Amino acid sequence: MATVDDVRRQFRNPPPEGRPMMRWWWFGPSATRDELDRELHAMAAAGLGGVEVAFVYPMGPVTAPFGSPELLELVGHAARTAHSLGLRFDVTLGSGWSYGGGHIGPEHAARQLRWDRRGIGGAAYDVPVVEAWPGDEFVAAFVGDGSSYVEVPVRDGIIHVPAGGQPREVLIATSRVTGQQVKRTAAGAEGHTLDHYSATAASEHIRRVAEPLLQAATPELLGSVFCDSLEVYGADWTPGIFDEFAKRRGYELRPRLYELLVDTDESRQLRIDFGRTLSELYEDNFLKVFQQWAAGYGVPFRIQSYGEPPATMSSYRFADIFEGEGWGWTRIPETRWASSAANIYGRSVVSAEVWTWVHSPSFRATPLDLQGEAHEHFLSGVNQLIGHGWPYSPSNGPGLGWIFYAAGALDDRNPWWPLATDLFASLHRLSWLLQQGTPVRPVKIYIPASDAYAETGLSEPNNLYRVARRLIPESIPRTIREAGLDYDLIDDDAVSVVDPADVPLVVVPDGTTTPAETTRWLDAVRAAGGTVVTDIATLAEHLPPAPFTPQQDVGVVHRRLDDGDIYFVANTGPEARTLTFDEPMERWTSNDVTRSLTLHPYESAVLTKTTTSATAEPSDVVEAALGEWSVAFDNNIRPVTIPHRWEDTPELATYSGSATYQTDLHLPDTDGRLFLDLGPGTPVDADSEPYLPPNSYRALITPPVGVAAEIYLNDTRCGTVWAPPYRVDITDAARPGANDLRIVVHNTAANALSADQHLLRAAEDVTAEFGHRFDLQHIEHAADYLNSGLLAVPTITQTG
């Protein structure tokens, strides 16, 4: 905890904690020391805080196969170089995702319970046990009438189905290796995903993969070791589960196993108990194993703990650093799964994989896209950004080089990179700020885990997060957030650590099943004076007052310090929104005191309450004369008329880079602060790029400059613009009369990508050599909806 003055003092120049990091994709693996060093220096120069190394599929000839001495030496070299630059260095404990590889045989591979369901007559049958695939293991057989079944005896490899009435049905259960191969693997890392319910499988992966990587990087140089999202599809079985189920649930699973397949009133509780057992096995035999191993070296274990296997929200408590992904501040993204766990279990830092799929395909993302999506994560409780990501790419390669198949290419190949330092500095300040104090989230939303377990395995995947999210009506989080409030998710394990007297409001979705202990906790909330809402239609009536009157598209994060409160507010939409306050509020970046704040599209602010009187600074347009404009591309200077869009000129349509616009600016003699204003930008339809998937973030605005600019007046660099308000203070460089105005505009690399055939050929070549490991997503849309250049005539405004 800290005081408001302490935080305010450090806010403008915070300590390194909270700087954005980047996932660093090593393709192949194929890397050189010199290029690793060059890229690490570029990251440090841009103000990034570190890297998370991820080993993925080849994009060219492989020089250091996964697990080879050559690769491990490069890992160690990169870790030492990062340390020398003050960068955090994290390593993914495997290649691709989820964990696995060639060292995982059938005895350690992910398994699924498969059913052979046959209708039969009344005669007796002898059916041989058949292992159709290597690693198949017979589990049990049952015969019944469609609702009630009995186990069939098996002797000498023969299933003996007795005679009986008809019609009948035989169910044969087999434990089968799922067959899922690790996704997007590097060369030398191919193989099965491992069994996340098996401690021996986890230990084997540690011995063969994790331990060599950790030792190569050396434990003292590691910020954390990492596990990506759980995507072990269909994995719902493990050897020894019968004993584990009986030990944990107090009754035998085997004679009732068929109830996992047959939906009856009696089978519902068994499916709930089975799901809980899988979650506990994942916690005990995967999470704890990796966390305790890493802890032995003093290294934190960081994980995205959601998906398949069915991780609960509280499963995070067995890791050190909780991470989510996914944006959507009025919804329940995976990010909220992680940030709720972090708050409940006392972790002050919660990270998120951010910019996954941002404005697909690669290189189309603008600084405004990155800022807007980052705000969505901040509003969802995140305070450490892990960018997705930075592709390793040889500097001497043809064309644009290498990119990841489905993400932004967020590196110094982007023409707008000269502004990256300013962008990352602003995100660093906010990340650090949101790590201070404690979050104020007066509402808890109960996760209907029992109901989710009951549905998994029938018509739903074995993904507790996804099913639970569907069972929580979207109106619940939206109503809370749009009222200017915040919430945590809470589940059946978390109630044991949350004091019911500290919970003013719990929302339980209609018709939710709650275990006995959770029911008692909800009763204790009521007894302590709290409210439990089960009728969602009345939720708004029970919400406590918000810190200030909410506005459409504006989200609020409330943090409590020792002696006061801070508020992060962000406009998440393409229209300006105005907040009004009952008492004066101070805006930290400008030190303005106001009772009214206009947030431009995708703009954020940090506010604190103050006793100082509000002051208004009217803004007026100054009568300033602009001369004729010129533009220079690579020292080729030509006259130009503003607005000027590069894509309207055929020879510039595929140009990615910078251009310098220049004019004479005549200013009157004034006493106030002067600003160069490029205009507000224009909202665009959300459906204007229909190919984009729902998880691909983009800012819904056509800016007045495409896409970012540096402003120079009389050879003084006054500032940069990439987001509304597109305005820069030019006061200190301005003089009455004649002034020289230069605007250096940078676009994206998408224009060049649309004409780059090298990347497509590289993908074809590596697919031919290494098999189909990826598809370059949306490359055919690289040229869609591009707007480069100076797209509006600037004006000069004055305040004060």
Automatic annotation (TrEMBL):
It comes from the Bacteria. InterPro entries: Class_I_gatase-like, Galactose-bd-like_sf, Ulvan_degrading_GH. Pfam families: Glyco_hydro_106. SUPFAM superfamilies: Galactose-binding domain-like (SSF49785). This is Alpha-L-rhamnosidase-like protein. It comes from Kribbella jiaozuonensis.
